[in-house]
Each structure stands twice: as C-alpha cells, then as structure tokens.
Amino acid sequence: MTEQPQTTDAPAEPAGQRAPEPDPLAGAAGDVPPAPAPRKDRRVLRAVLRWTAVVTVFAALGAGSAYGITRADRTDLPGLATESDGRWAYPEIERPPLPSGSPGPFDSGNLVNAHYADLRALLLPAPEGATDDKTLRGADGWLPMKDLLARYAAEADQEEVGQLLTDHGLRHVAARGWTTADGTRTRIYLMQFGTAEVVDELFGALVQYDSPVYALDGAAETANEDDYPASAVPAQVTRYAYDEAEPYGPEQVRQAYVQAGDVIGLVVQSRKGTAAAVPFQQTVTLQSELLA
C-alpha cells in the first residue's frame, strides 16, 4: 500500500491576535518604484492650442465662402457671369387671392374649372422698363369685344369669331399690353366663359396644330413653333404656339392660344424685323402659370 504524505497543520494564531494584512500597493521586496510620468512642456501645449484655433477659424471661413457661392447668382460672382439669354425682368408674380370659400380652378371640388379670382388680376404684369399700352385698358379694365376682334385680319373672320364668342357665352375680355425698349409689342387677351366644357368646344374651333383657324393682322401665314418646350407650360393648360412663316412682313408676329378651365388666353408679340423667341415663350409660360 502506498503511504500518503503527512501534512503539517499551520500553527493556530494566538487568541486575540490577527496577522497584519498585506498592502496591495506595496511591491515585492527589492522592487524599484516606477518613475513619475514626464510633465508636458507648457510651451508645446500653448503652440498646439494656437494652431488648433487657426485651423478652426480657416475652416469656418471656408464653410462661409462655400455657402455664399451656393447662394449667389452666377452673375454676382466674377468669372462666373453668363450672357443674358434674352429673358425679360418680370416683377415677382403671385396669384390673386380667391373670394372666401371659393376653390381654385383645378381643385377637386371645382367641377366646372371656373376661375373665381378677378380675371383682370390674372393678367400678367408688364416687365421692368416696359411702356404700358393704355388702349387695352378698356372701361374699368374690361375690353370691348370689338377691340379684340379688330386683331383679326379679315373682316369676315372678325364677324365669324364674334359670333362664336357670343354663341359660347363670352362673359368678359380682360387685356393688357406693353412695349419694351427694343420695340417688341406684347398684347395679352383673356376671355372668360361659363364652364370649361364650353371652352373645350370653342377652343377646337379657333385652333389647329399647324396654324390658327383665323389669321391675325400681320400674320397671314403661320407655322407651329416646334422648338417651344412642352414642359414649359403647366399640365392643366393647353397651349398652341405659332410663328409667322417666312418671309416676314414689316414685323414678325408670334402668337399663342392657351386654354385653362373656363378661360381662353391669346398672347401676341410682334417686332419690326424679327421678334425673339425667348421672351415670347417666357411670357406665354408665365401667363399660363397664372391661369393654372
């Protein structure tokens, strides 16, 4: 049998006495205490703080410059200016207020797509620097129908268009016109009827794709203006734009018919020699947006 080694019991502590507990922070006998961490030079700290402040200031300035560039117009920044594309400077344009409780012309509750705002207030304002055409003001802002009909070249067409307007229940004609410094004349006519359904029928009698049915004075031959972008007119508005066919007469005449709910608009621009396309398209687009 294998003998088990005998164990010697530790002597018991005398009663009333307790061995001192070891100090956990004390090193073993002979250990060298660690050297204290070196103190950082205050001059280095001050230099670091100064450079940090400089970097922060430049970062703030850079951010401010970037914001200014994103907010500024290209023409306000040297080296980024671009030549004008011929657009006119119109004043800020806002739709007139509606009578209390009245819906907009294309709100879901407006089944007849009626414009309840004052038709005269829906006319596009003249651009900056233009001379107002006072002959289009009419009495209290309403133009007599005969003055509108006088824009058509043939007397027979004037009579026929007048009968169409009467048969479809023309309520009002509001008009505005102006002449810009380069001699371009603009005339805008808004005709209001009872419902959009009536206007749909009349509009088809006034226009066709290639040319208007009834020629305006000075524009006996016309062609569809194909380069007019379709996206430039609101979806609720139907537009037919025409340019006078070459060779032009004494003036080049551009015209556009727009249909928006219970209103038909006619925009005419003319100028001796040639009439620029950009201000014409701009004018038609802005007038269409006012009616949408």
List the helices and strands and how they pair.
Layout: H1 42-71, E1 131-132, H2 145-149, H3 155-167, E2 172-179, E3 185-192, H4 196-206, E4 222-224, E5 238-244, E6 251-260, E7 263-272, H5 277-291
Antiparallel strand pairs: 1-2, 2-3, 3-7, 4-5, 5-6, 6-7
The N- and C-terminal alpha carbons lie at a distance of 113 Å
Order of helices and strands: HEHHEEHEEEEH
Question: Roughly what is the average pLDDT, rounded to an integer?
Answer: 80
Going across the major beta sheet, what is the strand order?
A: 1-2-3-7-6-5-4
Q: Report low-confidence residues grouped into runs of 5 or more.
A: 1-83
Number of strands: 7
How many helix segments? 5
Percent in helix: 25-40%
Please give the radius of gyration in angstroms.
Answer: 42 Å
What is the molecular shape? globular
Q: What structural class should be given to the helix and strand makeup?
A: alpha+beta
Largest β sheet strand count, sense and barrel closure: 7 strands, antiparallel
Percent of residues in β-strands: 15-25%
Could you describe the 3D structure shown?
By secondary structure, the protein is an alpha+beta fold. It has 5 helices and 7 strands; from the N terminus they run H-E-H-H-E-E-H-E-E-E-E-H. Strands 1-2-3-7-6-5-4 form a 7-stranded antiparallel β-sheet, sandwiched between helices. Strand 5 and strand 6 form a beta hairpin. The protein is globular and about 50 Å long. It starts with 41 loop residues before the first helix and ends with a helix. The N terminus is likely disordered.
